[in-house]
Amino acid sequence: MPDRPSPPQSHVRTTVLFPADLAGWPDGSPLYGYAHPDTGQTLVLDSCGNQPPRHQPRAVLLGWLEPQATGNDELAAADAPSLVVRRDGELLRFWLDGQPCQAQPYDLESALFSRHTCLLEERRLQDAGVIICGCGSVGGLAALELARSGVGRFLLIDPDLLSLENLCRHPCGLADVGRRKVDATAERIHQINPNAVVQVQATTIERLDPAVVQAFASGAEPSGEAQCAEAARQGGPITLMLACADSRRADRHAARLAAALELPFLAIGLWERAFAGEIFYSHPAEPMPCYGCAFEELSQGGQGNHGTGEMGGEERQSLQALSGKQESQRRFYATEAALEKLDFQPGLSIDIAYVTQIGLKLALDLLNLHTPSYAPRLLGKLSQFTLVCNSNDPRLGGERAEIFSHPLQVTTSIQVGYGQGCPPCRWRD
Questions:
Q1: What is the Cα–Cα distance from 279 to 331, expressed in whole angstroms?
Q2: Which of 52, 73, 281, 392 is the most exposed place for a label (fewest CB within 10 A)?
Q3: Which pTM does this prediction carry?
Q4: Which tens digit of pLDDT belongs to each residue from 383-395?
Q5: Contact 386, 411 (CB under 8 A)
Q6: CB-based contacts of 62, cutoff 8 Å, min separation 6
Q7: Which secondary-structure segment (H or E) carries 249?
Q8: Residue 81 included in any domain
Q9: Strand pairing report for 265-270 and 83-88
Q10: What is the CATH number of the domain that holds 409?
Q11: At 18, phi and psi to the nearest 5?
């Protein structure tokens, strides 16, 4: 049984936060949660039963709801708990280490996103889903930020384990070293929103059965419940394909799946040392080139078969510079095995985060395509393909850094066209 927390210091005023429906729990229910003796704050988690709360493996046994249930040997044999809650008619009385204490009820669902009122429509985002391909420094950050924004459904895809070298860039910590990135990230999501639905797949998007992606996109859960895809197209919850892998090949595969399933698609990637990054999006609400189109055109020097529109010298140079990058590996900062062969080091977390956060504003816009009251952050203001500069210093980015005129630059006018015979786009042409 987990150790109970130490008693709070005598000068600290104790407050217990408890689920608003606690009075309806059976007598003898164990109370699990988190206690902070130095501040006198204790949080009782919503878990009506004799097991720790789901998705909260680090929660400790704080006490139980009296009178104690009979027939529970584990609880009967336990020493006196730190926290005791006793019924007093319709009221509940709280004692911590034998002393009465203040208590405050909470409703988790309404409290979690109460500060989003008038900014985001909580119910729509709660039903929305995100498929995250790659849970490294970009995908891991994206998952947690979207969870904080209220997104309620996640499919995490990544085959890798978290290593010590990842910690300076990944949102997870030492306790997660050696774990699968998908599992560590899922636990962090549940620390933000215990009610989030999180599915994990410890593989690559290329190796994953497309039926798994299709089932998630349609709203199917492990329980077998599903929402109607037609309802989603008519304004219901949206599922976003978010590509954060370490290769264009993986992102292209994700883009093809998104096109086949008529899902909005977003790719976020960093260049070497994270001196700059790239963001690409598409959505089925209107005809537009896909990710494969963009980089087929790029390899042809910026001339898609449908034209690219007028393009400034800076934008054309940006595309030409990008066309020289390796096909299989574009995010050098995230590829530890390749570092010995390179003359630069991985990018800083703050630089990775700057590019990622801009991409996540687009992610929220795409997830709210059917929300009339939503005010888009960037959709319609950035072009479909955007370059984001952290630094234009050649010492960080080499000659390619000089294509940017100033640090923190965000391009707005790069245009891409349809590729020749691109299967995902041909039907839209």
A1: 13
A2: 73
A3: 0.81
A4: 999 999 999 999 8
A5: yes
A6: 4, 5, 31, 32, 33, 35, 42, 44, 81, 82, 83
A7: helix 248-261
A8: yes
A9: unpaired
A10: 3.40.50.720
A11: -135, 155
